[in-house]
Automatic annotation (TrEMBL):
InterPro entries: HepT-like, HepT-like_sf
Domain of life: Bacteria
Keyword Nuclease in annotation: yes
Protein family per UniProt: Belongs to the HepT RNase toxin family.
Protein name as annotated: HEPN domain-containing protein
Length: 147
């Protein structure tokens, strides 16, 4: 039976997952243009950081949407959003990286002097794909049913 509420929910998840993939690709594109000059080109560096933040915020939005739709409670913070969902999916191995990304984005938003080019480069090359893995896992799992 057609459920318009469920269809809108699924559409919203698809749109958010696409947004995550676009922002991750854009951050990588800025870094890969020339990684040796990445830190010196403030426009590229800032564009990469903004896209990392946008991808992370879209992932958090996916998580909050699922938690609301599944009536899983009210998360205390962004880490709790990811902990709750990843543990329900059996993907607890992603939690440390999601927490690292949360810390990175918090620093970027509230004290950009703390970020180093090395830290930003490591996020782009080593950790950013976890956001795509998270989005894919959320699309693949029906978290609205009981655990």
């Amino acid at each position: 039976m057609f459920d318009p509420g469920r269809e809108m929910f699924n559409d919203a998840l698809q749109i958010k997952a696409g947004s995550i993939a676009q922002h991750v690709a854009r951050a990588k594109e800025e870094f890969e243009k020339d990684s040796s000059t990445f830190a010196d080109d403030i426009s590229r560096y800032d564009a990469a950081i903004l896209n990392i933040i946008r991808a992370f915020e879209a992932a958090a939005s996916v998580g909050q949407l699922i938690i609301f739709h599944a009536k899983l409670g009210v998360p205390r913070n962004t880490d709790h959003v990811f902990d709750l969902l990843l543990s329900r999916c059996g993907l607890t191995t992603l939690m440390p990286t999601m927490s690292l990304l949360a810390d990175y984005c918090h620093k970027a938003l509230h004290d950009d002097q703390v970020l180093t080019p090395l830290e930003t480069s490591a996020v782009i090359t080593d950790h950013l794909d976890v956001l795509i893995q998270f989005a894919e896992a959320m699309l693949a799992n029906d978290l609205t049913s009981p655990p």
